[in-house]
Design a protein that fits this description.
CATH superfamily of the largest domain: Glycogen Phosphorylase B
Strand order of the largest sheet: 3-2-1-4-5-6-7
CATH topology of the largest domain: Rossmann fold
Largest sheet: 7 strands, parallel
Number of domains: 2
Order of helices and strands: EHEEHEHEHEHEHEHHEHEHEHEHEHH
Distance between the termini: 11 Å
CATH class of the largest domain: Alpha Beta
Radius of gyration: 21 Å
Structural class: alpha/beta
Shape: globular
Helix content: 40-55%
Number of strands: 13
Length: 386
Amino acid sequence: MKKYSILVMGAYGCGNKGDDAILESLCNMLAPDFNVVATCGKKNNLSWLNIKTTRCRLNRGMSLSVLALMCIDVFKILFHLLCCRAVIFGGGSLLHDRSAYNLPFWFFFQRIAKLFGKQTYYVSMGVGPISTDKGKKLCKKHLPLANHIYVRDKNGYGILKVLGLNNVTLTADLAMAMETDLEAAKPILKEFSLQAHSYVCVTLCKHFNQDNYYKKSLNDTFEFDEEKTILAEAFEKIYKKYKLPFVFLPTDEMDYELGLEISDRLKNVCKFFVLGNQYNARQFSSVVASAKYLIGVRMHSMVFAARACVPFFALVYDPKVKAFLEMTKMNPYYLDIENINVDEICLMFDKMADNETVTKENLRMVTSELSQSVYDSIIAIKEKIT
């Protein structure tokens, strides 16, 4: 039987382990039956997946140099688009109008795909905000033409339904179906002289609030020194009480420097290890799955924890995190990162630790249902493509 090709487009190979985890999960479900070609922001960033890639640098942000390079990249992307059976826009927070170029970028390729009779799907889609008149108009014009849209949370589902779309199904994040390879963590834990289930994973966001990413002047002038001090003091108190070392994971490569800063503040008071950016999504997932607890800001670190039934609490920096907490029934375990203080973080950690057994059982039941919804969505797409 002939194997059709599928072009998967997203912010892959751009330094965000969550997006790469989405791609790995999608490839695991598609690769046995289809030839997968994926966009990749940086050369060789996805070599560990053993799939064919084509460069796509605009999903790393807008700049004159990136636009110049995209003039070359776009022809290669269009070549793969013309050769494929279907185009899948695969997850992450792709559908938003926080920047002027984002929606036109994705809809340009959808329009070309439909022009040449290709099926188009949006899968594991994070939606919102879509707050501008232009953004709403673009979504109303283009999204009804997609074969189907699978959104990962109720917030996104509600936004698209308000816009009048009927080709929408609520599922879950694709990374919920990612296979965890616990063996991948062992060399990393050995490097830091750590034992499985005897450390606390930590993820943070360099910008502290997702909206700050789109406010470049703010990032240049505001150092978030108060927030860093609060976090460092809270980690010190938790370490003294529980005697558990911390392992910081830069889920986005931009967070690495923040991890080093926190580590430097704690170097004489507790064990705070920082993983480098050289590790891939599969290895990060394994490290989280081998942890005792997680204190998470980045959403996909919580996805990794939930799948492995590792208790966690969230420092919420983006509405998508609250949406994920609702889906996993982890609503009692979060603090808004903009209003944190040392005592609240420590009390939330105590609450999480005290309810460890109940939390694990809750996660076991909930994640099974969410993973199945992801599998069902991919099965439906495969049936339509073939």
